[in-house]
Design goal:
Keywords: Membrane, Transmembrane, Transmembrane helix. By secondary structure, the protein is mainly α. Helix content is 59%, strand content 4%. A two-stranded antiparallel sheet has the order 1-2. Helix 4 packs parallel to helix 6.
Length: 198
């Protein structure tokens, strides 16, 4: 009686490296998708919109003209500081040249407006990425049967939280920083217990 032996199908057992390639791909592509979607549907404020750059810029030589344009006037101490304690050199004959008594930062007000708009933008991006990261972390629990997908979503969620926090960290209130770090710690511990309790 002939006995048939079952031969293993070539390639039926995947290499462990395949799983980690899939995990890394899910993590990277998910965050690329989130950030690219933000760039497409929620535009970042542009400096040139708040502070247009004309081809010809007229010199602003007086404080009144500077303040009218929303600029910041900086008084000049020249030549008083330059020649302090020294003999002031002889002045040339009077000319029609206008004496410049200071410097005008014409982009002071529009620059402040841009900074405020950028803070609001970074705050909203932070909120979006935190929500997206939290959804990914929670979603990874429901697909825990597929290890590579679950791990990819978990890492993608963590990276999303990190990116959102970094973007808004400099403008974030100190107390809010403590709250964010505390929530992140609790979330990571909870995910660890849920996923590795077995």
């Amino acid at each position: 009686m002939d006995t048939q032996t079952t031969q293993p199908v070539p390639g039926s057992k995947r290499h462990p490296l395949f799983k980690w390639i899939l995990v890394g791909s899910i993590m990277i592509v998910t965050n690329l998708f989130l950030n690219y979607a933000l760039d497409v549907f929620y535009k970042a404020p542009k400096y040139e919109v708040f502070c247009p750059q004309p081809q010809v810029r007229e010199a602003v030589l007086t404080q009144e003209a500077c303040l009218t344009k929303g600029g910041q006037w900086n008084e000049s101490t020249y030549p008083k500081e330059l020649y302090q304690g020294q003999t002031v050199p002889a002045q040339p004959a009077p000319t029609t040249v206008v004496e410049v008594k200071g410097y005008c930062n014409e982009e002071y007000t529009c620059g402040k407006n841009f900074e405020e708009a950028n803070k609001v933008y970074n705050r909203n991006v932070f909120i979006f990425l935190v929500i997206a990261g939290t959804i990914l972390l929670i979603g990874s629990i429901f697909v825990s049967g597929i290890e590579a997908v679950a791990l990819g979503f978990s890492l993608a969620g963590i990276i999303s939280l990190v990116i959102g926090t970094i973007r808004y960290w400099s403008d974030m209130d100190e107390r809010l920083r403590v709250v964010v770090l505390g929530i992140a710690l609790v979330a990571l511990v909870w995910i660890g217990i849920k996923k590795f309790n077995n």
